Amino acid sequence: MSSQDGCAVLIALEFLRGFAEDKMCGKCLPCMLGVAQMVDILEAITKGEGKEEDIRMLEAISSAAVDTARCKLGKDAAGFILESLATSREEYEEHIDEKHCAKKSCEALINYSIIPERCTLCGVCKEVCPVDAVVGEKLIPYLSDNRPYYIREKKCNRCGECLAVCEAGAIEVV
Ligand code: SF4
Ligand code: SF4
Ligand code: SF4
Fold it and tell me: Which residues line ligand 3 (CB under 6 A)?
């Protein structure tokens, strides 16, 4: 796994969810319970609700599963998490301590924002926003007091539609 490719915490979470859905048979507890516990912990971390002891807990649970899971599938899955913790520990700590996702992947930890200096007041972002989170007025040449565009954080569901359509590159993920 390369920590360069995406958020390590999110990759670990999606890996375990996929494993639980497609491969885990549920015949032994260290794997079944361990995966469920790790999914809960990882989910909380990606939502900015991680706790100080979470990394230690993940290490303990995955180590136990590596040692005691009945088959190679479970051991390998737990081993994947151990490796992720070892190679990307700083990323986990950043999510937990600073509620920050440097890869801008964890939806609960990012916001979309309009850069006023770049915005051409075209209004396309407002048109595509599914939840009416964008506020502002299109440029009318003879008016000098157009209401500038901005995104209401509380309404935004982080769908990314506005970012995709803004040709001026005026929307950033922060
Ligand atoms: S370790 Fe193997 S046997 Fe045990 S629940 Fe996981 S997949 Fe099933
Ligand atoms: S799409 Fe971009 S340029 Fe157009 S109003 Fe929105 S932020 Fe401004
Ligand atoms: S990310 Fe989606 S919900 Fe948020 S402002 Fe952009 S279009 Fe609207």
Answer: 112, 128-129, 131, 133-134, 151, 156-162
Beta bridge partners of 173: 112
- Condensed to tens digits (0 to 9), the pLDDT of residues 19-55 reads 999 999 999 999 999 999 999 999 999 999 999 999 9
Domain 8-98 = CATH 1.25.40.10: no
Quote the ligand 3 centre to 80 CA distance (angstroms): 34
Q: Which helix (H) or strand (E) holds 89?
A: helix 89-98
Topology of the domain covering 111-174: Alpha-Beta Plaits (3.30.70)
- From-to residues of CATH 1.20.1440.230 in the chain: 8-98
Whole-structure pTM value: 0.80
